[in-house]
Structure formats: structure tokens, C-alpha cells
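Q: How would the C-alpha cells look for this protein?
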Amino acid sequence: MSDFRTYTEDEKHSFVAPSCELCGQHRHIVWQQDGEKWIPRDKGCSNEACPQYNG
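A: Here is the predicted structure in C-alpha cell form.
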């Protein structure tokens, strides 16, 4: 993910995970806290059949 924007607690709940470039499935996001802000970290595709899957 190239977007380094930080999010508030309320904005976190409306965040839409990006789609995988290969299969279109949503990607796993893990939130990292930075003070009172949050940063979404991409953990790979959520589709087990995709080569970019990171289970």
C-alpha cells in the first residue's frame, strides 16, 4: 500500500480495504497505532487461491 495516511479511531471503522491486483478479492489490513492515529498495514490477499495470499 502506497497510501501513508493516518486515520482516527472513527475513520478506521469506515476504511475500505483495497482489492488485490491479481484476483480482485479484498486484502487483509492490520492496524498499527501511532499515538492517537492509526496506520493501515497491508498483510496480503485474503483469497487462499491467490499467489499473493498471506495466511
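DSSP finds one helix and two strands in the chain.

The chain has a mean pLDDT of 90.

Upvote if useful.
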